[in-house]
């Protein structure tokens, strides 16, 4: 069993489609081992996305991620990291395969509805960034 970290981003929470995203999570065989709705500060968003700090889109990304609440998730299944990336689809919704979350719900490369860890190292940083051991059930 492997764990990955996911975020349902502000664009999805604002449009009241959290349930539709969670349906896809469960349909893909993930167990939700942690889940909470939180409001990120700009600083917390910057800390989470520190690997992108030199990228031109970093400022806009952190403003977007802190503009309204998000739902953070720790998800478990076999090959969770790769499977969640498959279920999300390509970063840019325009390039995402049919049936993926980003193709169905994404608005733009920034407002792309969901985040997912891209490697075991990222998951090992991202899950404890938001969840304590006691919150993972
Ligand atoms: P995410 O998986 O959350 O990881 C970094 C995010 O940066 C990415 O999804 C996109 O929403 C956002 N982003 C904004 N602009 C770009 C870009 N030009 N290339 C890649 N990611 C971008």
UniProtKB/TrEMBL annotation:
SMART domains: NDK
Matching Gene3D superfamilies: Nucleoside diphosphate kinase-like domain
EC assignment: 2.7.4.6
Example GO BP: GTP biosynthetic process
Stretches of the chain forming a coiled coil according to its record: none
Family: Belongs to the NDK family.
Protein name per UniProt: Nucleoside diphosphate kinase
Native species: Geobacter hydrogenophilus
Gene designation per UniProt: ndk
């Amino acid at each position: 069993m492997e764990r990955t970290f996911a975020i349902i981003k502000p664009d999805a929470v604002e449009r009241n489609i959290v349930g539709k995203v969670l349906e896809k999570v469960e349909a893909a065989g993930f167990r939700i081992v942690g889940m909470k709705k939180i409001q990120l500060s700009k600083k917390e968003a910057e800390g989470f996305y520190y690997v992108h700090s030199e990228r031109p889109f970093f400022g806009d990304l952190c403003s977007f991620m802190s503009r309204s609440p998000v739902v953070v998730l720790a998800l478990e299944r076999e090959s969770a990291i790769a499977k969640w990336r498959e279920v999300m689809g390509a970063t840019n919704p325009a390039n995402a395969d049919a049936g993926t979350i980003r193709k169905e719900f994404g608005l733009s490369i920034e407002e792309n509805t969901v985040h997912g860890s891209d490697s075991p190292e990222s998951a090992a940083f991202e899950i404890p960034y938001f969840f304590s051991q006691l919150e993972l059930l």
